[in-house]
Amino acid sequence: MSKNIPVYLLSGFLGSGKTTLLKNLIRFEKEQGRTPAVLMNEAGKVSIDSEEVDKDIPLSELLDGCICCTIQDKLESQLQQLLIDGGFDTLIIETTGVAHPVEVVDSVLSPLFADQFSFKGIITTVDALQWEKRDELSIQALQLMREQIKYAGIVLLNKVDLVTESRIPVILNEIQSLTSSRIVLTEQSKIDFTLLDQIRLKKFDGATQLRVNHELQLNVVVFTFQHSIEREAFDAWLRNASSSIYRMKGFIPFTGDKYPVLFQYSYGMPLFFDHDMKMTANFVIIGENLDEDQIKKELMELQ
Ligand SMILES: Nc1nc2c(ncn2[C@@H]2O[C@H](COP(=O)(O)OP(=O)(O)OP(=O)(O)O)[C@@H](O)[C@H]2O)c(=O)[nH]1
User: Complex ipTM, two decimals?
Assistant: First the structure.
């Protein structure tokens, strides 16, 4: 195993485009003749995003919690296992949208691996539309978003297609006031990855760290559909869904469809993608102060 494996950390708030960036970065690494390994976690007990990573990529998943708060020890052992298994040249870590990046960096910079990994920096994605609507977020959620920007070595101002052109310089200014790192405008998290050569490694001062689990009352509802549901009934449910739901994703079995459809939702914007494989119909909902029992009851009724 070669020493000094470059490590990139992908950070960014829920639904801002991290997984999209991950897929682009994996493609770039492969084009460069390198094999990336991926460490990802989800703020739920089941993983949706990992279904989207090709099978030939070494993938280590940390489920049931956010990397930063609950399973830091597990992260260290996963990193160790990846090193033992070997066979990769770059490591990409995708944190959950509610993770504070600095705590993840702490694990990567652990003395256990200091000689094997070369931490390159944090790439943070910001959803331009979500930034515009940031007043709707709780103070804690907004604080986390700011911190993810503050510690980034490079920022992707993503989803620029969703805001009017005249707003972009304003948003850029606002974000630039939080960081001196480079900000790149993107759609679908597409960037020229040679820019990563210029990524800056920020100094971390632990003082401003936000303990996400303690202050941000995010919770995750995981539901598995056992039967197919009517599309119209689902649409109606969606229209009435609580405004404190930030993010939903999952595979939804609609009546009449051969396979469950991949459903993605961030900040009021639902998207459906046909899928040509039978996936377990897991559905993950992330938000603040969600009434888990009520949501599960409603979803049960859809069946
Ligand atoms: N309109 C638009 N949609 C985008 C863009 N980039 C990503 N998306 C969509 O936004 C949704 C969320 O993207 P992801 O890449 O899954 O976001 P994420 O940050 O990994 O989400 P979490 O894992 O929940 O934190 C998906 O439906 C993407 O297809 C963009 O530039 N414009």
Answer: 0.98
